[in-house]
Design goal:
The chain is α/β, with parallel strands linked by helices. It contains 17 helices and 7 strands. It has 2 domains: 242 residues, no CATH class; 81 residues, Arc Repressor Mutant, subunit A (Orthogonal Bundle). This is Winged helix-turn-helix transcriptional regulator.
Length: 350
């Protein structure tokens, strides 16, 4: 049997960093209304201290969102329309056909349940349809009640509650002297990563989020990495039928003054600023080696080599597994791009 191979271009996920004040507002509301975990958020003390400055409307709206988990709806709608302001969000959401509005709000369960989700969205005037879909989330912490709420509250009420809460939260948060600094840091976070490698999404996600592990999923074709301050120190992950949303906390370095190099950049250059460490890296790029093999090859004590390898590991240039050292080639390439981005150079220029 002869197989005829007709090559096609390989499809990859679309990986991007998305940042806007609206994401930060929605994440702040999500964190504030997560009552049983609120004490773990870095902003909790500040929220508590500034609560007397809240409007009565905001307090009442936050109570409603805490009871219904409608913060989830804010995130789903913003993901759908990618608005840059509350006004734009309100207009774009109002323009959505009702079935699209509800299909956006209804959480994704799995591929086998997509027909149920679609049918519930089309039957938005029948609360029974939402109750049936809600029953699929009985084991979930909050989505069952959230879906039932969508069937009990009118579209106009939902729209008004979500946009009014965002506006009131903005009025309250923007009085915070750190708000503008947050916006600058979020904007810089998006710019500094430049072009992302869609061929290696798991490695890129781990690098950018500083540790989030991502396992490719069959239905996911878009991955949005969304930096935040309000939800620190947590990573929040949500999923639609085709998109993975990963909200990751900004590092302390994001609040550095413009022109100040991030510690990862400084640490990396220090790790490379030694003759022996560069030679070690040169050999490991050509293949994994054990400590014993490196000791024999360089005629240096294990103690000395272990110290030098530890510095390369701290800079993420080297990985170690079961006593075998190997070069982290993705981080090495990424580091080269980081220096270009820090200096403001275009890595695409020859």
């Amino acid at each position: 049997m002869i197989n005829i191979h007709s090559p096609h271009s390989q499809e990859t996920v679309t990986l991007l960093i998305e940042s806007s004040p609206l994401w930060e507002l929605a994440l702040g509301i999500a964190g504030y209304t997560y009552a049983k975990m609120r004490y773990t958020f870095e902003q909790d003390e500040q929220w508590t201290n500034r609560k007397p400055l809240m409007s009565v409307t905001l307090e009442n709206n936050l109570d409603k969102i805490e009871q219904t988990n409608l913060w989830y709806g804010m995130i789903m709608l913003q993901n759908k329309v990618s608005a840059s302001s509350i006004g734009e969000l309100s207009i774009k959401v109002s323009e959505l056909p009702s079935d699209v509005f509800y299909e956006t709000l209804l959480p994704y369960k799995n591929r086998s349940c997509e027909s149920h989700r679609s049918e519930a969205a089309k039957s938005y005037e029948q609360s029974d349809a939402f109750d049936q879909y809600a029953s699929l989330f009985k084991e979930h912490d909050y989505l069952e009640g959230y879906v039932r709420t969508l069937g009990d509250v009118s579209r106009d009420e939902l729209h008004s509650l979500l946009t009014d809460t965002l506006s009131e939260w903005y009025n309250w948060q923007s009085q915070n002297t750190d708000w503008e600094k947050w916006m600058q840091a979020l904007s810089f976070e998006k710019k500094q990563h430049g072009r992302l490698d869609n061929q290696k999404p798991s490695e890129e996600i781990e690098r950018i989020t500083r540790g989030a592990k991502y396992v490719p999923e069959p239905s996911v074709w878009n991955i949005k990495l969304i930096p935040h301050v309000s939800y620190r120190p947590w990573i929040l992950e949500q999923k639609t039928s085709d998109t993975k949303l990963i909200f990751y906390p900004l590092s302390d370095e994001a609040f550095l003054e413009p022109g100040s190099p991030p510690s990862e950049l400084v640490r990396g250059h220090k790790a490379l600023g030694d003759d022996l460490r560069l030679k070690l890296l040169y050999q490991l790029i050509r293949g994994p080696l054990s400590l014993q093999e490196l000791t024999t090859q360089f005629n240096v004590s294990k103690t000395t080599l272990h110290h030098q390898l530890s510095l390369l590991k701290a800079a993420k240039f080297v990985k170690a597994e079961k006593g075998i050292y190997s070069a982290n080639t993705h981080q090495i390439r990424s580091f080269s791009n980081q220096i270009h981005h820090y200096l403001g150079e275009d890595t695409n220029e020859e």
